[in-house]
UniProtKB/TrEMBL annotation:
Species whose genome carries this gene: Bosea lathyri
Protein name from the UniProt record: Formimidoylglutamate deiminase
Pfam families reported in the protein's UniProt record: Amidohydro_1, HutF_N
NCBIfam families recorded: hutF, PRK09229.1-2, PRK09229.1-5
Organism superkingdom: Bacteria
One cellular-component annotation, GO: cytosol
SUPFAM superfamilies reported in the protein's UniProt record: Composite domain of metallo-dependent hydrolases, Metallo-dependent hydrolases
GO molecular function terms listed in the Swiss-Prot or TrEMBL record: deaminase activity; metal ion binding
Cofactor(s) needed: Zn(2+)
Amino acid sequence: MTQTLHLAQALLPDGFADNVKLVVANGTITSVDAGAQPGPDDERLAGLTLPGMPNLHSHAFQRGMAGLSERRGAPEDSFWTWREVMYRFLDRLDPDDVQAIAAQAFVEMLEGGFTALAEFHYLHHDKDGRAYGDIAAMAGAIAAAAEETGLGLTLLPVLYRFGNFGQAPSVHGQRRFVNDRDSYLRLIEASEAAIRTLPDARLGLAPHSLRAVALDDLDWLAKLRPDGPLHVHVAEQMREVEDSLKITGRRPVELLMEHAELNPRWCLIHATHLSDGERDAIAVSGAVAGLCPITESSLGDGIFDGVRYRDAGGRFGVGSDSNIQIDAGAELRQLEYSQRLRDRRRALMAEEDASTGVALWRASALGGAQACGRSIGRIAPGCRADLVTLDDDHPALVGKAGEAALDSAVFAANALPLRDVFVGGRRVVADARHLAREAVKTRFATVMRKLLGAL
């Protein structure tokens, strides 16, 4: 199938251009022609069109528990008390519940400017911890939600074996996550089958964290799929760093670098608490730092050193993680504002005399594409036609174009002011509303009433 789109204005790899004609064949851009007049059969997109933003880290089921963890624990509240709330919530979920919750999250991602997702998927087993007859039943629920909503998917089945550094036993709340190597191999095979019918879907692998796997699992995983993406949680919390030092004698990123070859396949999720040497080594390796600024703020994780990491040439992208708020512009804004609060200066993630919104969008789209292992994140030949068109009549954008419009979309709108979203050339959002919004919302509401009634 071939289609032609005419974009009034678009962000191309070398900057903004007017009157951009795209030819798209089977979901992939085959040609880009700036300064072209629209043809009579072209589909015309007004406003400002951007490459869709990849979401490089999500736990889709957590959208169902958003807002349930805001009661202060005793004697204090932290990531670790939040984790107990999460364990209690997931105790009740079955695959149908997960599919309904994931579909709602995916609709909100598409309405928030995310066109692709790397789903860090660790909820595998039944409520008693035993595998389902189909060991990838939960992965199948994620795939079905992606198919229903049209979101591009990189599925990352997570290996989770232990409860802490030093191969400490897992705890009761983790029973639905745990696999040994043999069952994990079966999970990978079944997960690959689950995504086989999705257009341009990709399978990657993910050791959950250095707390949750044996150190020799890292090399084993890397060799299982020599060309696929590898994601890992690392150095999110100071307690994690302290435990790693106490038990192994190394900081988490030091430990990772000793037991795995960091390279562009890797995405290090959070990587919040780094020494200068760790930060620069990640940048040099070509790995991606997977930042989730809204969730990291919510959990009190700390502030990633984005300015010095960027100055070292580091690659990064953003993810919605716990899905308490799903909006690509809000993630970018929170990332920039965290740097401003720490350093008490402005426009820190851009080069001198450059647009902060453009710098953040472009870098995050490229880093997210790398982390997803897919040809996305640019409006260029050979890339999937994943597009987000901003509404230039929105109050935050009216009268603006190019850099000023994108800066305003990120920093001056309550939510990303989009109009249309295409994934692989297929329109999935029109006039800011997902085409399946009402059906997905109705099913989600039924599941949530059931789950909250049980709570």
